[in-house]
Amino acid sequence: MKKSNLITGILYVLFGVVCLIVALLIETKLEGILWGFAGAGIFPGIMMICKYFYWSSPKNKEQYEERLENDRIEQHDELKTKIRDRAGRYAYGIGLVVICFSILVFSILGALEVIDNARMIILYLSGYLMFQIITGIIIFNKLMKKY
């Protein structure tokens, strides 16, 4: 297994420990988020470190090589590549529809004065929608130039 996996795991744990220490020592409104980051850093980091040592041991070396070969085959399978591309396209389209629907819903809720600051939510969602569309166009054009 790559050494970068071990380093990434160690960095996750260190980030989690720093967040844990800050959450324990400082009283702030962000304490809940710090606790969440601590858990999200420590536990996956420990799992990465354990996987590194498990797959790096000599008795699991052959099984790991077989697993890598299967992953390479899966990544280059043409049918699965087409299906992944189509799934991404559908997810992108559905995401755009959900954003547009959300803008409409928050506009209605703001007009009915059900929620405060609906305008900020609408502006944020509109900005995100524009970001998605522009990013999709840019990525498409870059891929067209590449191929």
Lay out the secondary structure.
Layout: H1 3-25, H2 31-56, H3 61-76, H4 78-111, H5 118-146
Major β-sheet annotation: none
Task: State the separation between the terminal residues, measured CA to CA.
Answer: 32 Å
The helix content is over 70%
What's the Cα radius of gyration?
A: 23 Å
Overview of this structure, please?
This protein is 87% helix and 0% strand. It has helices spanning 3-25, 31-56, 61-76, 78-111, 118-146. Helix 1 (3-25) runs antiparallel to helix 2 and helix 4 packs antiparallel against helix 5 (118-146). The protein starts with a helix and ends with a helix.
State the main characteristics.
147 residues, mainly alpha, 87% helix
Summary of the model, kept short:
By secondary structure, this protein is mostly helical. Helix content is 87%, strand content 0%. The chain is flat.
